[in-house]
Amino acid sequence: MSDAPGDAAYAEYLERMLAHEPEMRLARALVRSQREPCVEALQVLDTLLLDAALEVRDTGVALAKLGWWHDELARALAGAGRHPVARRLVQAGVRDADALAARVDAAGAIARLESPPDDAALLAPFIRYARASAAADTLAGTAEARGAAYLTMRVRRWPAFAPPQRARIPLATLARGGFSRDAVACDPVASAAAIESLALALAGMIGAATSADDARVVCARHVLRALRRDPRRAAGGDVRARPVPLLIALWRIARRERSA
Questions:
Q1: The pLDDT value given to residue 13
Q2: Model's pTM, two decimal places?
């Protein structure tokens, strides 16, 4: 790649992805596949699509942003892309228009999520997103595990994930704790209880996953442990995986990758 202005603009979006998921810095340093241009660009696209779906306060605006991405990715595949990430995807060899459209449509299902009755209903659109992304991302891992990983990495951004007006916290979670949506967004005790409940539900799915070589799932598994270890700290959006256990897990992936 050249050092053109578009590359500098793309690097800003890559840095945004790494700021959201700091564990991926270590994954990129150790696991060769995480540095492949196609894998990297798709991961950056994931961040932008899920930010649009989850971190915009108004659902209509979120869906409008995703609609723009749908059109922009089509333009990029036709050689007229304007966004640095859309252009980088094409440079990296992404050509499947249907797969990219499915990815955006699945992000729309996440954006429309409101008042899920239980943990399974909350997780369902994230699994759909994982299935859509699997068409263009060849890394190992079941859709269920990858969907749980996507959700885990968003729960760790609790202040952005849990605003009451988006009504994402399962009704069963609210009922068990006797909490309001405002409480789980703002009250440390209620927030910690809701995080602990969601983390427990996610632990079974990620823990049982047969995706030992999926670096993103492995990173999410370690973030999930941090969420369960200190849910009160997680309520402030300040939680990271312990580096040494994560380093060992990623080193094992890298070793298997080298011997494959």
A1: 97
A2: 0.92
